[in-house]
Amino acid sequence: MQQKKLTTNLNKKSSIIQKNFFYLLILIIISFSFTYYSGYRGVYPIDSFIIFDSGYKVLNDIHPFKDYWSITGPLLDYLQSIFFLIDTSWFTYVLHSAFINILVTGIFFYFLVKLGLNINYSFLYALSLAILAYPSIGTPFVDHHAAYFSIIAVSYFILSLKENNKKFLFFSSIFLVLSFFSKQIPAAYLGIFFFILLMVRLFSNKKDNLLHFIYGTIFCTLIFVILFLLNKIQIKDFLIQYIFYPMTIGDNRISDLNFNFSNVFLQFKFIYLAMLPLIIYSFFEMKKKKNNRNNDNLLIVIIAIISTSILIYSQIITKNQIFIFFLIPWCLGISHFLLKDFKKNNLILSMLVLVLVFTTVKYHLRFNEDKKFMELENVDLTKAVDAKMLDKSLKGLKWIHKKYATKPEYEVKKLLEIKKIILKDQSNKIIISDYQILSFITKNKNFAPNKWFDPLSIPDKSNNYFQEYKDFFISRLINQKIANIYIIDESKLEIFLPIFENQNCYSKTRLNEISVKLEISKCL
Length: 524
Hints:
Helix content is 62%, strand content 5%. By secondary structure, it is mainly alpha-helical. Helix 6 (119-132) runs parallel beside helix 16 and helix 15 (327-339) packs antiparallel against helix 16. The longest helix has 38 residues, at 2-39.
């Protein structure tokens, strides 16, 4: 009898493992394929090419903070250089973002199962997240990495408190550090929130889990410190570029924010709808008598609500296209777990699934199909051309850009003209452009001393850090003995030229309709 019972239990356990593996395999395939599908459709140069260029720089021993001014995290630059060890191409570029999409989807699936949600529902919510996460852009981007690493950190944080497991807390702190070195927020806000919560628990329950959070933070931070030391990146340069100067940007953004009903509520209405069951649950739970209250679940809800609010706030102050709709399945999955034992739960759970399916389809069509994040929602994507016209490494990329939506062939043709001109130029030169892919396809070993050229990444003359930036930029030009600067899109001149005290030191030559060349040997 006991043997039969043992055999039954083993068979049951084996069936669960097989089901877990099957679901995980499906999630990997979906996460990969949707990201690839999206990553090969359309471009938004300033966002699409930035990590390609920085990864190529690191691959050639050119490092953030030391060699080029960077106000975004170094993690993506180094990760992309690792993927480029396989092959420097659009395929390995999108492989990077697909890998992160697989990671966040797999961990979310594990999180829900570990939390106690039925495996079938866990798969459903994870499937939604796989569709709504990285496919919204398709290519590696700092905001996405930071948000996904943050939500992984929150998920592990919840599991650590639910199960009193120090290992999960250690993982939580590691992913929070990874998020911070992708982009400063939301990790900075979440780190403060986690620390306060752990301190409260430390003094109220005399738990020592805080130390494991600190251990993980120190361990992961030390990896970056060692990376900086090995590559001779000065801490001063890191602090100025990544902490002090961005704080001035953040202050200006916050002061300029227009917190109206549309910005704060309408844009995120379905995320708030997904949060609503959590808010209602917390309200009823707090109404219970202290002895009947499920404090663990209440704590989960509080963490989920505050963490989601932090990500919404971080999205608002970035003033970027919204990409955090992956929070919908994340919130709904937690809600499903908490409400599964409620009376009339079938009706409630059916409504959660209905909201999930509706929002997944809605935002898949808007962002993955219509490419709203890349501002291509009103563009005829069938007019795209194969980017292999520009370089064989871009084979398969359907090139179309909002600015030249009706004539993508013209845009590629003009870039091809510039490519040929740069290839013929044997002088030391840099390229200033949103088309940062040009450095790679021209095999230019000189580097522009800036990660990207937009009004925020470069301090203006009134900023306290303008002189720091100017000295940094000029010194890198001098060290490389730069003679020529190729500028694609003359609007970049307004951002770039103020670094020269003598505005008559350079000569300008027009190359074609979209580019000019500056001869700057007399400026240095």
